[in-house]
Amino acid sequence: MSQPELPPLLREQLARYDQTQQNLQAVLAQKQQVEMELSETEKALEELGKASDSEAVYKFAGNLLVKVKKEDVLKELNEKKELGSTRKMVLTKQESRFRETLKDLQGKIDDAVKARPPQTQPPGDA
Fold first, then answer.
1. Measured between alpha carbons, how far is residue 26 from residues 33, 37, 38, 50 in Å?
2. Phi, psi dihedrals of residue 122, rounded to the nearest 5°
3. Residue 34: phi, psi to the nearest 5?
4. What is the distance between the alpha carbons of residues 70 and 56, in angstroms, rounded to a whole number?
């Protein structure tokens, strides 16, 4: 016996659910990356805070280490931290919206499945 055909609305909701799940996974991966970058930036700022103003500070520039002014690196790292924090906040909001959409879609899918009439078997198929 073949599977009964799903109503178009239910198929559409299932497709939206799958797409939203994929979007949520992408946002979570981006958020994890941003959190790692933020952690590295904060650690670098902490280490720079321990260094005296007279100590040499170096920065990667491609395959090279270049001597830079401490205050320039501090400014750059603080800007990077601020940008990362903003990106994390945006991704957290997106995550919340996707989770809410998934919850809503799950409810609609559950309701649609419960509302479907039970499948009867044609005579002689028993």
1. 11, 17, 18, 37
2. -65, 150
3. -65, -40
4. 8
Mapped onto helix, strand or coil, the DSSP state of residue 57 is: strand
The structural domains of the chain, with segments of one domain joined by +, span 8-115
- Helices 8-50 and 70-115 meet at what angle, rounded to 10? 160
Tokens of 101: 């959409």
Q: Look up the pTM and report it.
A: 0.79
3-state SS string for 65-79: EEEECHHHHHHHHHH
Residue identified by tokens 């400014």 is: 75
CB 101 within 8 Å of CB 18:
no
Q: How far is CA 103 from CA 10, 28, 90, 106, 113, in A?
A: 15, 17, 20, 5, 15
- The neighbouring-strand residues paired with 60 are 65
CA distance 20 to 105: 9
Question: pLDDT tens for residues 64-92?
Answer: 999 999 999 999 999 999 999 999 999 99
CATH number of 8-115: 1.10.287.370
